[in-house]
Amino acid sequence: MRRTIVHEGAEQLTYEIREIVTVAQKLEKLGIEITWENIGDPIRKGEKLATWIKEIICDLASEDKSYAYVSTQGVYESRLFLANEVNKRGGCQITEDDIVFFNGLGDAVAKIFGFLKREARIIGPSPAYSTHSSAEAAHSGYEHLTYTLDPEKNWMPDLKDLENKIKYNDSIAGILLINPDNPTGAVYPKAFLKKMIAIAARHRVFVICDEIYSQIVYNGARTCHLSEVIGDLPGIALRGVSKEYPWPGGRCGWIEVFNQDKYPDFKRYIKSIINAKMLEVCSTSLPQYSIPKVIGNPKYAQHLESRKKIFEDRANEAYDIFSRVEGVTVVRPQGAFYMSILFDDDVLNENQHLPIDDPAVQEYLQTIVKDVHVDKRFVYFLLASVGICVVPLTGFCCGRKGFRVTLLECDDQKRKWTWETIAKSIKHYVESE
User: Fold this and answer.
1) Is residue 130 in a domain?
2) Last residue of a domain, one of 279, 295, 311
């Protein structure tokens, strides 16, 4: 072609959570029954949306307004409701004009990073959530900048590492945090969040906080929303219904913007995001209409509490199983519905294997395990041997070796079988040299 048409950051658009599906599907065609532990979809893993929430959605589906365009920033009543919910917490106060709806947080993340000045970088956690890390890297054309999460300190950020990287890289314009965290299940205490905000204030950068799991906190953990600690700094919180209702197929997320009126450049940046959304007209209307009716329903608090208890029990069940496995380190999750299993240093090598009887499966496996990280190699062998699909930790923009599982399987027997089978497979793999 007469001109290069590929964006400089195109090679950074990777998403291991779904890319591994391609490998699993090929193995499925070769006769392997797959147990999907790669993606955070509660519905796919057997959770049923509460009947009273379904009834609200069904009623809205019968109303003509649910099929019409809405304002670019979203349904006014829903934005007003959410702004009032933020203001009830104390801390930074906002209005309905500080709420913007998107077709899921993936859409929001694409806009947030896509409309930053290319030279402006956002530093995020490692392990990273692929949607954020890939979008940030793609916008800049370089590898995503990260600060370290420390498994020896309950996966809390290394604040010294974070501050040094910001101090000595003046291209960094913002800090990204995910609280509760995906993929580690860590939850940041309020006092810790305040320390991160203090770093942002010292270096005059803004803060983005992904709070999609903010209502899934357990095992005695306590945290808070960004609005409660942001003070006078510019910031953005990301929220949605996909994990709370849960309604992942609704593709409904929103951002809460803090202190944009105090920072003209930040306000221009937010305006550019809204203008980009305007080109799409608006986001899907029906899920937006449901928010005041569902979140404002007296039954919603109990709905959240019952789900917290479910994930707490599963987190502890998984921890009890994996903490007994030699060669790995695990941290008991306190939020979200994920757990990262970390291989100890020098445990993995390129000579290990798991038993595979089918010659066709063995032949395919040998074509994909060449020149991959050793944790990804284990993940491929696990898939080919027992059909369990997990995500390698190196797929989360991370140098540490391990993998992530979910806490979503609703079938108690299958869930326990899955984790115990993984545990046995780790033992066999490590001892197979």
Assistant:
1) yes
2) 295
